[in-house]
Design a protein that fits this description.
Layout lengths: L1 E4 L2 E4 L3 H12 L4 E4 L4 H6 L5 E2 L1 H9 L4 H6 L1 E3 L2 E5 L2 E5 L1 H4 L5 E3 L2 H14 L3 E3 L4 E5 L7 E6 L2 E6 L2 E4 L17 E17 L8 E4 L5 E7 L2 E8 L10 H12 L11 E16 L2 E2 L2 E3 L5 E2 L7 H21 L4 H28 L7 H16 L1 H11 L7
Parallel strand pairs: 1-12, 2-3, 2-13, 3-9, 6-15, 13-20
Antiparallel strand pairs: 4-8, 5-8, 6-7, 10-11, 11-12, 14-17, 14-18, 15-16, 16-17, 18-21, 19-20
Helix pairs in contact: 1-6, 1-8, 8-9, 10-11
The chain binds adenosine-5-diphosphoribose and P-hydroxybenzoic acid (PHB).
The site of adenosine-5-diphosphoribose has 27 residues, from α1 and α8.
Length: 395
C-alpha cells in the first residue's frame, strides 16, 4: 500500500474539483485530485457551455482564462421565441454591462488540467475505486483501489467534487443530510452539429410541440436541443427526424431556420432539481453537482460549481493562513443562499418555456401571458437578465 499525505483530498476532476485544486495551489495549499475516468474522457465529455460574468472574472483572476479570452464568445443578449417570433433580452443593457460567455465546459476542464500539470499538481486519473474513511474525525483519508493495489491519501479535509453520481455524498451517514428534489416530466435531446452558427445569440424557443434551444460552441459548431420524453430512445431519432423537428420548432416567421450540418454527437439529458443540505458533514465538504443539480434551462450548473469552490477555497485559506475556521463553518450556509436562488431561476425558466402535457388550457394561457409580459416589460426582462448573467457571488 502506498500512502500520501496532503492538506485537501479532492474527489472528482470536473470543473469543481479542478478549479478547487487550482485555487488552493494559488493559496499555497496542497491537494490531491482523484478521478475514476481517464483524462481524455474528462476533456472530451460534452456538457454545458455558458459562463456567467462572475465565472469568467474568477477564471481570469485565477490566471486560467487565456484561451477563454481568445475563443470564448461573449454574448450581450439572448433571444426568447414565442409563436415563431424572436424577442431580444438585452442582458448587458439591463445589467450595467454584464454578459455571458459561451465556452464549452470541457474546454474549461482542458484549461484547468493543463494548468494543474504545468504546476505539477497531484492529479490521478483512472485511479480505481475511491472510498472515504474516518470522515467524522480530525484525520480523514481517501482510499483508491485498482487491480488489487491500494493507495491511501491522508488529509485534513475532503472535498467531494464527484458529481451527482459520485461516492462522497453517499458516504455520509443516513439521516445527516436532507435532500430536496423535483423531477420534470421531460428531457432534452441535444446534438452537436458541424454547422456555423447563423445567429449571434442563443435562442430559447417556446413551441406548442415543445421547447427548443439554439446554441453554439464555436464559429464552426452549433449546439441544439429539443424537449423530448424522459424515456425517449435516442435510436428512434434519426438525424433527419431531429433536423425536421428542429426546423419546425425553431423556424421563425421571418424565414430564419437553423442551418443543418453533420451531427457529431447526440444524447439525452435528463432534468432534475436537487439540493442537499447542509453541503458538509464532518471533514467532508460537497461542491458542485455532488451537492446540487439544476435543470439546464438557466445554464447554471457549471457556474454554481465555480461559485461553491470559490467560497471553499477562500474558507480553507482563512483556516490555514489566518488560523480561523469561521468561514469553513459558514461554507454550507453561504453557498446555499445562492444555490437556492439559482434553483428558483432554473425552475422558473424551465416552467416558463416547456410544454407540460398535463397543463390545463388555463395554465397554458398563463404561460403565454408570462412570456408576453417578459418580452414586453423592461422590469420583467431586467429580472431575467440579472439572474442569467449571474447573481453576485455572495448574495
Ligand atoms: N471517484 C472519483 N471520481 C468520481 C467518482 C468517484 N467515485 N464519481 C464521479 N467522479 C468524477 C466524474 O468522473 C467527473 O469527472 O467526478 C467528476 C465530477 O464532475 P462533474 O460531473 O462535471 O461535476 P462538477 O465538477 O460538480 O461540475 C458541475 O457538470 O454536470 C455538469 O451541468 C453540470 O455544468 C455542471 C457541472
Ligand atoms: C449549451 O450551449 O449547451 C446550453 C446553452 C444554454 C442553456 C443550456 C445549454 O440554457
Amino acid at each position: 500500500m502506498h500512502r500520501t499525505q496532503t492538506q485537501v483530498g479532492i474527489v472528482g476532476a470536473g470543473p469543481a474539483g479542478l478549479m478547487l485544486s487550482h485555487l488552493l495551489q494559488l493559496h499555497g495549499i496542497h491537494s490531491v485530485v482523484l478521478e475514476t475516468r481517464s483524462r481524455q474522457y474528462c476533456e472530451e465529455r460534452i456538457r454545458a457551455g455558458v459562463l456567467e460574468q462572475g465565472s469568467v472574472d474568477m477564471l481570469r483572476s485565477a490566471g486560467v482564462a487565456s484561451r477563454l479570452d481568445k475563443e470564448g464568445m461573449r454574448h450581450e443578449g439572448i433571444e426568447l421565441g414565442l409563436n415563431r417570433v424572436r424577442h431580444r433580452i438585452p442582458l448587458s443593457e439591463l445589467t450595467n454591462g454584464k454578459a455571458v460567455t459561451v465556452y464549452g465546459q470541457h474546454e474549461v476542464v482542458k484549461d484547468l488540467i493543463a494548468r494543474r500539470i504545468a504546476d505539477r499538481g497531484d492529479m490521478r486519473f483512472e485511479c480505481g475505486t475511491v472510498s472515504l474513511h474516518a470522515i467524522d474525525g480530525p484525520r480523514p483519508f481517501l482510499r483508491c483501489e485498482r487491480e488489487g493495489e491500494a493507495d491511501e491519501i491522508h488529509c485534513d479535509y475532503i472535498a467531494g467534487c464527484d458529481g451527482f453520481h459520485g461516492i462522497s455524498r453517499p458516504s455520509i451517514p443516513d439521516g445527516a443530510l436532507t435532500g430536496y428534489e423535483r423531477t420534470y416530466p421531460f428531457a432534452w435531446l441535444g446534438i452537436l452539429a458541424e454547422a456555423p452558427p447563423t445567429r449571434e445569440e442563443l435562442l430559447y424557443m417556446y413551441h406548442d410541440r415543445g421547447f427548443a434551444l439554439y446554441s453554439m460552441r464555436s464559429p464552426a459548431l452549433t449546439r441544439l436541443y429539443l424537449q423530448c420524453r424522459p424515456d425517449e430512445d435516442i435510436d428512434d431519432w434519426s438525424d433527419d427526424r431531429i433536423w425536421s423537428e428542429l426546423h419546425t420548432r425553431l423556424g421563425c416567421a421571418d424565414g430564419w431556420r437553423p442551418q443543418e450540418g453533420r451531427v457529431l454527437q447526440k444524447g439525452i439529458t435528463w432534468m432534475r432539481s436537487y439540493v442537499i443540505e447542509p453541503m458538509q458533514y464532518g471533514r467532508v465538504y460537497l461542491a458542485g453537482d455532488a451537492a446540487h443539480i439544476v435543470p439546464p434551462t438557466g445554464a447554471k450548473g457549471m457556474n454554481l460549481a465555480m461559485a461553491d469552490v470559490r467560497v471553499l477555497a477562500e474558507a480553507m485559506r482563512a483556516c490555514y493562513k489566518d488560523n480561523s475556521s469561521a468561514r469553513l463553518e459558514q461554507y454550507s450556509a453561504v453557498c446555499l443562499r445562492r444555490v437556492w436562488k439559482a434553483q428558483r431561476f432554473s425552475w422558473w425558466m424551465t416552467s416558463l418555456l416547456h410544454r407540460f402535457e398535463d397543463a390545463s388550457p388555463f395554465e397554458r394561457r398563463l404561460q403565454i401571458a408570462e412570456l408576453e409580459y417578459l418580452t414586453g416589460s423592461r422590469a420583467a426582462a431586467a429580472s431575467l437578465a440579472e439572474n442569467y448573467v449571474g447573481l453576485p457571488m455572495e448574495c
